[in-house]
Design a protein that fits this description.
Helix content is 33%, strand content 20%. The chain is of the alpha/beta class and 459 residues long. The chain has 3 domains: 6-153, 3-Layer(aba) Sandwich (Rossmann fold), CATH 3.40.50.1010; 164-235, no CATH class; 250-458, 3-Layer(aba) Sandwich (Rossmann fold).
């Protein structure tokens, strides 16, 4: 290994999070311990959502090392160069099974310990290099530090923001009256639609489809474009947003009004809803989906899915159809359906009729892979537990005439390997904020109950 190069040792979860991660370290060297390959091998054949990622990682590693001799694989094979000015580093496999148990090393009875011991050995053998273990497992980072590893890091190349407070909320609220902030304005009307062209300096960091509100509770608008000088704002009206309706549901606050505006807009292909538990994400998405499938006939069906770690693991072994297997995890959807039909006397009959009429299909996340979904509204719940690469796979499955609604609560991440800033939900909010076909709305305020509201704020 060359002096002054950083040597990165990758944990298994990095390659599950981003299968091509080993190509992201520029001129520095990357080492994959043998234990990591064994873990990938055991995961690739399981009925898990991450199995595909494991297979992609194995294939990519094999492609990089396919022409190398065993000696070259151990010493390092040159990675492909992405930037001519910065020559790439080398990829090698480290056989951690050759290491002996010595004083100061962790016991070999856990795979995590084997990987840490490999990193400690490499650190000892390369005193002139910075040795970095890269893992998304917080506990493993603590153990590695405690065992004497000088540098342990998370994988951050797909992290777009440093603090969740900087995440785009989908709207900007002016203090006082919106028009008090405007010096000059050109307005153009087409039918019922009016667009105001104002000085861009009033909102220099605006993005596409960002909603504009003010304290007066009269004005509401949406950014529809800009140039170096002017910002185009479509006049939506606070009153009209609050008057939105879908399947008998009206917004309870202006945030729900903005969400319904986006959900019911046929020109928007992707709606991202973030917010606390009880803020209405699932109910609004389902009501808007029913409205557009049953009443307006804009789509053929509703596909409902969500990400939970247990689904991917258990779905292959539970008895019953896919819908029946999914039922325990989709109770949020069925609860919302019951809310939408609580006024019906024969609720069970009504629910079954609506599920048939709207062609509602409950599917596992695995269903979204390897096929193109046409003319459907796809409701993807609990997105905070998906990685950026998993969400990318799902979004690229949406074909012609399909609308995708991604919702999640960044305060309720169940994955060991994701945080609010590295969640796939955070990633798509930032990546799509300048895409004209997508809208983000952060639903402020819990409308479920005063108990839920108190718990969200105080527990």
């Amino acid at each position: 290994m060359h002096e002054h190069k950083i040597i990165y040792i990758l944990d298994t979860n990095i390659l599950l999070h981003e299968p091509l991660a080993f190509l992201s370290f520029k001129e520095h060297d990357v080492i994959v311990p043998m234990t990591v390959l064994e873990e990938l091998d055991s995961i690739k054949d399981r009925k898990k959502d991450v199995s595909r990622d494991a297979r992609v990682a194995i294939r990519a590693l094999e492609d990089s090392l396919v022409n190398a001799s065993p000696e070259e694989v151990l010493s390092g094979v040159k990675l492909p160069e992405n930037d001519p000015e910065h020559p790439s580093g080398c990829l090698s496999i480290f056989n951690d099974y050759t290491l002996a148990q010595t004083a100061g090393t962790l016991s070999f009875n856990e795979n995590d310990n084997r990987i840490i011991n490999a990193a400690l050995h490499i650190q000892k053998e390369n005193p002139n290099n910075k040795i970095v273990l890269v893992t998304k497992d917080i506990n493993m980072r603590l153990k590695a530090k405690g065992a004497g590893l000088a540098h342990v890091e998370d994988y951050r190349t797909d992290q777009l923001i440093d603090d969740i407070q900087f995440l785009a909320k989908g709207y900007y609220k002016f203090e006082g009256d919106f028009w008090q902030n405007i010096d000059e304005c050109d307005s153009k009307s087409e039918g019922r639609n009016t667009t105001h062209y104002v000085n861009k300096n009033i909102l220099p960091n605006s993005y596409m489809n960002e909603y504009i509100l003010d304290d007066s509770e009269h004005f509401a608008g949406k950014v529809t474009g800009w140039n170096d000088e002017k910002l185009a704002i479509a006049d939506l009206s606070y009153e009209r947003l609050m008057a939105k309706q879908a399947w008998g549901i009206n917004p309870k606050n202006i945030y729900q009004g903005m969400a319904m505006d986006a959900l019911l807009d046929p020109t928007i292909d992707l709606v991202i809803l973030t917010g606390a538990a009880g803020s209405g994400k699932t109910l609004l998405a389902l009501a808007s989906a029913l409205e557009q499938v049953v009443e307006r006939g804009l789509y053929d069906k509703i596909i409902v899915t969500r990400s939970t770690p247990e689904i991917a693991e258990s779905i292959g072994f539970l008895p019953g159809t896919e819908e029946e297997k999914m039922a325990p995890w989709l109770s949020a959807i069925t609860d919302s359906l019951e809310v939408l039909h609580k006024s019906d006397e024969n609720m069970n009959g009504s629910l079954n009729y609506i599920m048939e009429k709207a062609n509602i299909q409950f599917k596992s996340v695995n269903f979204m892979r390897g096929r193109s979904i046409q003319n459907a509204i796809v409701l993807l719940d609990e997105c905070q537990n998906l990685t950026a690469s998993q969400l990318k796979t799902i979004i690229t499955r949406c074909g012609e005439g399909t609308k995708l609604v991604c919702s999640g609560n960044l305060a309720q991440i169940d994955s060991n390997y994701l945080t609010a800033v590295t969640s796939g939900l955070t990633y798509i909010v930032e990546r799509f904020k300048d895409f004209p076909g997508s809208t983000t709305v952060h639903l402020n305020g819990v409308v479920r109950s005063r108990l839920a509201s108190f718990a969200e704020e105080n527990l």
